[in-house]
Amino acid sequence: MPHYVIIGASHAGISCAEKLRQLGSSDPITLIDRLAGVPLQRPPLSKAYLGADNAEEESFYLRRADWFTEQNITLKDGVDVTAIHRADKTLTLSDGTSQPYDELILALGAAPRRLPMAEMDAKGVHVLRDGADAKALKTDLASASQAVVVGGGYIGLEAAASLRKHGLSVTVVEAADRLLARVASPSISSYYQSLHEGHDVTILTGTGLTALTAEEGHITGVTLADGRQIPCDLLLVGIGVIPETALAEDAGLAVGNGILTSHSYQTSDPHIHAIGDNVMAEGRWPIRVESVHNAQFSGHMVASQFTGGKAPADEAPWFWSDQYDRKLQSAGLVPAPGDEVVHISRAGKREGGLSVWTFAHDKLVAVESVNDPQAYMIGKFCLEQDKPVQAAQIADETLDLKSLRA
Ligand SMILES: Cc1cc2nc3c(=O)[nH]c(=O)nc-3n(C[C@H](O)[C@H](O)[C@H](O)COP(=O)(O)OP(=O)(O)OC[C@H]3O[C@@H](n4cnc5c(N)ncnc54)[C@H](O)[C@@H]3O)c2cc1C
User: Fold this and answer.
1) Which ligand 1 atom is the nearest neighbour of the CA of 13?
2) Confidence label for 349 from pLDDT (cuts 50, 70 and 90)
3) pLDDT in tens, 82-103
4) Domains identified in the chain and CATH numbers
5) Pure H helices in 64-142
């Protein structure tokens, strides 16, 4: 009877534990997380959670508080795992105890990147990764009036939309020459720039920060590379994440940009698997994917291997983002710009709807849609079924997308 120990009780870790039970395992499962309390869903933290009443906290739980007991899963929350001892299969915990395991699953996620300035510790400066970060931001935004968001990726933009809803003036500063440069096609970047500007957000691209200023320990402004100064009483830093690899590296496991695993998420130790945001799995995606889908998929894959249960169907990586009244859905991965990369935009049926179909070397590789769920569903289907879709077909606005399903 193996004892499964999962470090990280968030989207990946909980999905894995849940699938172990659903696929018939009655073996002991222990979930350990350094965060105290019932784990919260992460996606709403930059969206609905920031506007929600504290009394609604339970609606953001990843699983109900009594789910863990019901499933006979031990949740050790508020406890950090400080070392993995592979030789005797034990963990050292921050409460001074040790935890034995038979099979260890690392679902450690990632930590937000911080700016290298001392004023990162000033009051009014925030990052956004977990419930404690979101609570601190929620408290401060109630009394703030001018926000600067550093980073025009999804989290920065979602937070910018939420801050506007609260009536703050918002400036987004992005070092790349367009928003969402790392993850989205140029048309989607332009769409979101216009959307935010239409909501009176100031967008500054192609410029970095050189300094932060603080007075009496509270943030008062930022200085841009061109010398411009922007005053603020709230600063949100959303400049990406760093995968949590230190614990694995200290234990002698192979790491790179994430914990390195086989296609089936096994690390360089056969009794240790890794899942979710902290993983770089061989032969899966060309980059380390950070999404709820990847967390759930990898958790499910590992649980199915342990139990001999049904593995999840291979899916194109998918993602969503909610900003104002727009829902972006994307499937596949948008490659970096190149000679062989072509993006085709189509208007959607709904007002403001749009889809962007990306081809690399004449092959469909990604579909992004805004308020156009039909294009997303059909595009995702074509990607997964490897349908021979041509760019010229998509460019033809008279084409009924449903015909691609045939
Ligand atoms: C604000 C926000 C909005 C997002 N919006 C979207 C969205 O709209 N759509 C989407 O698909 N994805 C979204 N994401 C991304 C998504 O939430 C992540 O991909 C997902 O949370 C990854 O899950 P994970 O379990 O791998 O990692 P995490 O959620 O980071 O969880 C890792 C857990 O491990 C714990 N841990 C780490 N090290 C230790 C240790 N040594 N000891 C004990 N515990 C440890 C951490 O405390 C943490 O709880 C969003 C993320 C954020 C932060």
Assistant:
1) 25
2) confident
3) 999 999 999 999 999 999 999 9
4) 4-111+242-307 (3.50.50.60), 114-237 (3.50.50.60), 325-405 (3.30.390.30)
5) 67-70, 131-141
DSSP character string of 123-156: BTEE--SSHHHHHHHHHHHTT--EEEEE--SHHH
Report the nearest-CA residue for atom 35 of ligand 1. 8
Ligand 1 atom with the shortest distance to the CA of 290:
19
Q: Give the pLDDT of residue 214.
A: 98
Burial tier of 263 (Cβ tally within 10 Å: 0-12, 13-18, 19+)? exposed
Give residue 339's pLDDT: 76
Instruction: State which ligand 1 atom lies nearest to the alpha carbon of 44.
Output: 3
Per-residue tokens: 200: 């009176």
For 7-33, how does the pLDDT look when each residue is reduced to its tens digit (9 = 90+)? 999 999 999 999 999 999 999 999 999
Q: What is the pLDDT averaged over residues 270-299?
A: 94
How far away, in angstroms, is 198 Cα from ligand 1 center?
31
Is any ligand 1 atom within 6 A of the Cβ of residue 221? no
What is the distance in A from the centroid of ligand 1 to the CA of 74? 20
Residues 275/244, Cβ–Cβ less than 8 Å: no
**Statement: the pTM of the whole predicted model exceeds 0.90:** yes
The Cα–Cα gap between 120 and 289 comes to 27
Q: Please work out whether the CB of residue 330 comes within 6 Å of at least one atom of ligand 1.
A: no
The residue to mutate among 42, 104, 321, 326, having the most atoms of ligand 1 within 8 angstroms of its beta carbon, is: 42
